[in-house]
Write a structure and sequence with these properties.
Elements lengths: L3 H4 L11 H15 L3 E8 L7 E3 L11 H13 L4 E9 L2 E5 L14 H14 L4 E2 L1 E5 L34 E7 L7 E6 L6 E3 L2 E3 L7 E5 L4 E8 L5 E6 L3 H15 L3 E2 L8 E9 H9 L4 H14 L5 H16 L22 H12 L4 H7 L22 E8 L2 E9 L5 E9 L8 H17 L8
Parallel strand pairs: 4-6, 5-14, 9-12, 10-12
Antiparallel strand pairs: 1-2, 1-18, 3-4, 3-15, 7-8, 7-13, 11-12, 16-17, 17-18
């Protein structure tokens, strides 16, 4: 029960409060005056006891701080040097693609879909294959729903609710390039994946910026366009979720093969041959999970962790994350509820104490340097790029942000001036009917981190 050590040994209160402790108390009071119940846990990386805490054993909805637990579990279960693997082979003359759950097939990167498929075409041409009996996509254990059922059902077409699967392009999204012109409708083209797919409807040109709203929905065999774009906006690119990731994968594959003169013919020679094994590293995906707060990459990595143990479904991934957390910290608190890997679901429940414990054990493990390197840096990278701008802690903060309606969070690592590492978790909950509160809570969280920076080692407050 190592997690208990974070809550134990906390009952010895020294008389009086330091200036930093008073600052923490006042910041918590400020948050709670706004309506946000606040839990805080603080510990130095080499200590088994808490440096400071408030409501550290209570359960909170972690929002995207859930990604810290997912990343820690994935690193422990797969290792920093893990590579996603997708296999292409001829089997009985059919082109068989065996899924590996690779989340890295993204345009503009070294793993761009067109680059991979160019390598496949080259392998077929080298083998003097210009006819295949068909195409077969092997999903393996990547079965079941493509999204957690607890995700907001009215937002499933958005890029941040993109589906997962064994074979996925562009993080489960499609990109459209929209160019306003002089006519009544904008010019629209699919930017990624670079497939030929019918576009239905149109995006009208609006003379005024106010009220100009536009979008697109994947309808399977076509894309539905709607709305209006301001004439003066200039070209824009939007991303929305695809309906079926494997269908887009198959469409792009077929079109690239056809463009290279490789045709499907049931009468093709029944050849058996290994063609290509496409491998990509874990690190870019993990960086997107933590630095960009990518929901897709979190769920995809969760599923790959599950597949590593024999079950690549979302449920299998949740079970695998929970098992790795247990292996990392020992007995888990009864309050813990793991519903997804991204934190978009409201059913997740995590204690500040557990977050700090997971961080501590992870940083002492083989994947610790990778975890730390993937976290956003204050006023520099990712979701912290615009935070801690005028703060004395600034770039010494390596932390994960989190927000869904009713929950706000900031947890991570603070590099002290003497080079030591201090771990913190700040979780807040409030009435989800209250809108606009998160922007007010962000500076309060930053105030807390500044106070945490000044806590003297050895101070422990119940």
């Amino acid at each position: 029960m190592r997690w208990v050590l974070v809550v134990a040994a906390l009952l010895c209160a020294a008389p009086g409060l330091s200036a930093q402790e008073r600052e923490l108390e006042q910041a918590i009071a400020q948050a709670e005056a706004l309506g946000a119940v606040t839990g805080v846990a603080v510990a130095d990386v080499d200590s088994k006891t808490m440096l400071w805490h408030r409501r550290a054993g209570e359960a909170f909805t972690p929002a995207s701080n859930m990604k810290l637990l997912t990343a820690a579990a994935v690193l422990r279960g797969l290792g920093s040097d893990y590579q996603f693997s997708t296999r292409f082979q001829l089997r009985g003359g059919r082109l068989v693609v065996t899924a590996g759950g690779d989340p890295n097939w993204i345009s503009g990167t070294e793993q761009a879909p067109d680059k991979v498929l160019q390598a496949l075409v080259a392998a077929l041409q080298q083998a003097r294959v210009d006819r295949i009996a068909g195409i077969e996509l092997e999903a393996g254990t990547f079965t079941g729903p493509v999204r957690p059922p607890t995700w907001p059902q009215n937002q499933l077409d958005t890029y941040y609710c993109a589906p997962t699967g064994g074979l996925v392009l562009e993080q489960g999204t499609f990109a459209l390039r929209i160019t306003p012109g002089d006519g009544d409708a904008a010019q629209v083209a699919i930017a990624a994946p670079a497939v030929a797919l019918p576009l239905h409807g149109s995006i009208a040109i609006a003379g005024a910026k106010k009220g100009a709203v536009y979008g697109a929905i994947d309808q399977g065999a076509s894309i539905k366009l709607n709305g209006r774009i301001w004439r003066g906006s200039g070209p824009v690119t939007i991303r929305n979720a695809v309906h079926d990731p494997s269908a887009w994968f198959l469409l792009l594959l077929r079109q690239r093969l056809q463009a290279a003169g490789i045709v499907e013919d049931p009468a093709a020679a029944p050849a058996d041959r290994a063609l290509l094994v496409q491998r990509t590293p874990l690190l870019p995906a993990l960086r997107r999970v933590l630095e960009d707060s990518s929901n897709f990459d979190a769920e995809q990595c969760l599923r790959v962790l599950g597949a590593h143990g024999g079950d690549g479904s979302l449920a299998g991934g949740v079970a695998a994350v929970t098992a790795q957390l247990h292996a990392l910290v020992g007995e888990l608190p009864a309050e813990l509820q793991v519903v997804d890997g991204s934190g978009l679901s409201r059913g997740n429940a995590v204690t500040p104490a557990l977050l700090v414990t997971v961080l501590r054990e992870s940083l002492h493990g083989a994947g610790g340097p990778t975890l730390l390197a993937c976290l956003p840096v204050g006023h520099e990278t990712g979701t912290l790029e615009r935070r801690f701008a005028r703060s004395p802690v600034g770039a010494r903060v390596h932390a994960k942000t989190g927000w869904i309606r009713g929950a706000s969070a900031l947890s991570g690592v603070l590099r002290l001036k003497d080079g030591g590492l201090r771990l913190f978790a700040i979780l807040m909950r409030y009435d989800s009917r209250q809108s606009g509160l998160n922007p007010q809570l962000k500076p309060v969280q930053e105030r807390m981190v500044e106070a945490i920076d000044g806590l003297a080692a050895g101070e422990r407050r119940p």
